[in-house]
């Protein structure tokens, strides 16, 4: 997990996009928070893929269907359209090849849900602009040399990649620093500036 | 009846203390070897009570040298059941809640038909006249036992090592009969290295002059030395270098200095000799040949055109696989390849790798993480199956 548990307001948004009894694969399922939420509230058929063995063992001990694996290398083993939804929450920026991973998500799931921290947020911009240092914030608490987050992007960057992969954005939500949704009527530049996290529902 | 056979297992072979299900000429078993086995018998133990819906049955599959005495005192050794830490009243697999079945595998030596059993055609022990038994043959025989209990769908099939192979075979050949499957420290095929170790063991047995081409009972003998050596070699593969070093190091056995001879100077030598000696007391040498062969022949992918995922196509069974970091007999990669095949088949699968230095045998030990995984998996499967706590 690359983001504090207390900050996971995005999970509520993700859960809101998933209808009851869907087949869901959670890539980077961490401590199983989202899977547990989805099973309890949506009775989904949920599976998880998680890098950390300790996270996996804890999930399985709690009765969740989770395997140890790497989003960069293990998604190829899943069949085309095997799931209604494939979720990648707060993990894209920690993958080695985000484009390939996103491509795989769109292949495996009828829909993909991706949430990530927005590197275009004004605090990040301010940190670089004023301090000239890589930003370390409440959401992104790592120093540049020990961060697992090796591929940050902004909301605009992400939208470009989605277009490049031939996918469409069905829904998008940006959350501000307080975890509040930013109004739908706002333009992309506004989201990119004030959105601290973004959640996208994609289809191809 | 054949003449008494030497060794402590004698009383447990044709008429064991366990309940026995006998299949006569009307119910032959068609073996992978191409022949019919008839008559034959299966010895088994059960624990707990089958519920009215017959939905709470758990089948435990034992490993190479295991037996049906999974949760009760072994009649040959007098020791507790081999998985008593896991299975029993109030345990993780709670026999107040579940009906647990464990049968001696076909080819075994504790009451199910095996090479030590009396061949009805000759009145003598089968010896090598028994056809080669495969993992699938073992499962076929277990299926007949499960049918006997009128159980349509087993709640769970679990086992480690060779037992895990049986679990995979069950899930592959009769997926509609298996609600959940828990293969531990196992593989979908026996590796070249594993076949190599088994061959060493078999050659040790066969090189013993007391083996007599497999007809040792007729000579009033048993190839104890050969079987002990086989067990010693195999036992090393069940442990790990780190665990051996931790337990024994280069410690000397009951002496202060090297003797400059070939006595068991080192504790590890003494330990292995003891393991070999106690094993021959409780196990039949020919049965050891048959058991090892069954594992060597196991290759689930080969049975499905070389694609392991096809062995599980369309399965609705819930899987949980477990491996151990220091297991060099069935390394984690073996489990991972099964997981990938199950992913490709769209199956529900959990996979836990447990960090331990106790090697392959860790599955038989009280390993808290193993028990936690089994507890979580069984618990959620039971909720899905509608079994009350």
UniProtKB/TrEMBL annotation, chain A:
InterPro entries assigned: Methionine_synth_MetW, SAM-dependent_MTases_sf
Pfam families: MetW (PF07021)
Domain of life: Bacteria
Gene3D superfamilies reported for this sequence: Vaccinia Virus protein VP39 (3.40.50.150)
Entries under SUPFAM superfamilies matching the protein: S-adenosyl-L-methionine-dependent methyltransferases
Protein name according to UniProt: Methionine biosynthesis protein MetW
Organism: Mesorhizobium waimense
Lineage: Bacteria, Pseudomonadati, Pseudomonadota, Alphaproteobacteria, Hyphomicrobiales
TrEMBL record, chain B:
EC number, UniProt record: 2.3.1.31
UniProt xrefs under InterPro entries: AB_hydrolase_1 (IPR000073), AB_hydrolase_fold (IPR029058), HAT_MetX-like (IPR008220)
The protein's annotated pathway: Amino-acid biosynthesis; L-methionine biosynthesis via de novo pathway; O-acetyl-L-homoserine from L-homoserine: step 1/1
Major subcellular site: cytoplasm
Pfam families documented for this protein: Abhydrolase_1
General function of this protein: Transfers an acetyl group from acetyl-CoA to L-homoserine, forming acetyl-L-homoserine.
Protein name: Homoserine O-acetyltransferase
Gene: metXA
